């Protein structure tokens, strides 16, 4: 567990289902505390003893339920996913729905992505100059940003990329300085500049491809 900003913690676990490391976050700086796309950390749930209990679990999409049931059982936390993804969950896994644009517990705003899958959501946290928490829409590869491989984008990857570009151009209107990724290490500081630079490259490549 690493505190990447005051009251914001990041950890990495190996996801056997996809065969790679994934990233989760605990935010004690909101009221109440929340976790995003959680898997149980190496330290176990005992790590949270003496800290603000995470009362809400935010999923960036339905496939990031991960270990939410363990957090819910341990802390009585409510799991949240955009309403279009609720069909995925059986009654044994209760999940609450929201609409894009909703203000969620902790003062977090659910921003519409609606590309890759209808429930894909980016969360805006008004902390430390602003934070965007991103699911599968954009990933971090070392010191660069990117999209998931084309084979994971359905039948028309070019159209998906255009949709993602448009969504995140809209997000640039918000004030933020940091990026949290479900796939890739968090980008702390200069996150808006990094995202804007990536989107500019995507736009230029799209224009070249259309010539």
Task: Please give a handful of descriptors for the protein shown.
211 residues; alpha/beta; Metallo-beta-lactamase, Chain A; seven-stranded mixed beta sheet; six-stranded mixed beta sheet; 3 helices; globular
Counting structural domains, the number is 1
The structure class reads alpha/beta
User: Largest beta sheet: what is the strand line-up?
Assistant: 1-2-3-4-5-6-7
What's the CATH H-level homologous superfamily? Ribonuclease Z/Hydroxyacylglutathione hydrolase-like
Rg calculated over all Cα atoms: 17 Å
Structure described in brief:
This protein is an alpha/beta fold and 211 residues long.
Give a written overview of the molecule.
There is one protein chain. The protein has helices at 68-75, 157-171, 191-210; strands at residues 2-5, 8-15, 20-27, 33-36, 54-58, 78-82, 96-98, 103-104, 108-112, 121-125, 131-134, 139-141, 144-146, 178-181, 187-188. The protein has 211 residues and is of the alpha/beta class. The chain has a single domain, classed as 4-Layer Sandwich (Metallo-beta-lactamase, Chain A), CATH 3.60.15. The strands form 3 sheets. A 7-stranded mixed beta sheet has the order 1-2-3-4-5-6-7, with helices on one face. It is globular, with a radius of gyration of 17 Å. The termini are far apart. The model has no long low-confidence stretch (mean pLDDT 94).
């Amino acid at each position: 567990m690493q505190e990447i900003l005051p009251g914001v913690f990041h950890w990495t676990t190996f996801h056997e289902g996809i065969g790679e490391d994934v990233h989760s976050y605990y935010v004690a700086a909101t009221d109440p505390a929340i976790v995003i796309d959680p898997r149980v950390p190496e330290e176990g749930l005992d790590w949270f003893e003496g800290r603000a209990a995470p009362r809400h679990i935010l999923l960036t999409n339905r496939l990031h339920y991960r270990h939410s049931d363990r957090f819910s059982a341990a802390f009585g936390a409510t799991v949240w996913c955009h309403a279009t993804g609720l069909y995925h969950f059986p009654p044994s896994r209760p999940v609450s729905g929201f609409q894009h644009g909703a203000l969620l517990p902790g003062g977090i705003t659910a921003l519409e992505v609606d590309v890759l899958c209808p429930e894909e959501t980016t969360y805006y946290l008004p902390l430390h100059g602003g934070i965007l928490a991103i699911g599968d829409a954009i990933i971090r590869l070392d010191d660069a940003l990117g999209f998931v491989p084309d084979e994971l984008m359905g039948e028309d990857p070019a159209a998906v990329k255009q949709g993602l570009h448009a969504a995140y151009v809209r997000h640039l209107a918000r004030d933020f300085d940091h990026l949290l990724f479900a796939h890739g290490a968090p980008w702390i500081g200069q996150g808006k500049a990094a995202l804007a630079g990536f989107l500019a490259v995507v736009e230029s490549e799209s224009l070249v491809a259309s010539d």
